[in-house]
Amino acid sequence: KPPWLRRRVPSGPAYEEIKSLIRGASLHTVCEEAHCPNMWECFSNRTATFLILGDACTRNCRFCAVAHGTPGPLDPAEPSRVARAAGEMGLRHVVVTSVTRDDLPDGGSGAFGDTVRAVRERVPDASVELLIPDLQGRTEDLETVIAARPDVLNHNLETVERLYSTVRPEAGYRRSLELLGRVREKAPDLPAKSGIMLGLGERPGEVRAALNDLLEAGCRRLTLGQYLQPSRRHLPVDRFVPPEEFEAWRGLALALGFEQVASGPFVRSSYRAGDLYRKGASGPAPNDAEMGLDGGRSGP
Question: N or C: which end of the chain has fewer CB within 10 A?
Answer without folding.
Answer: N
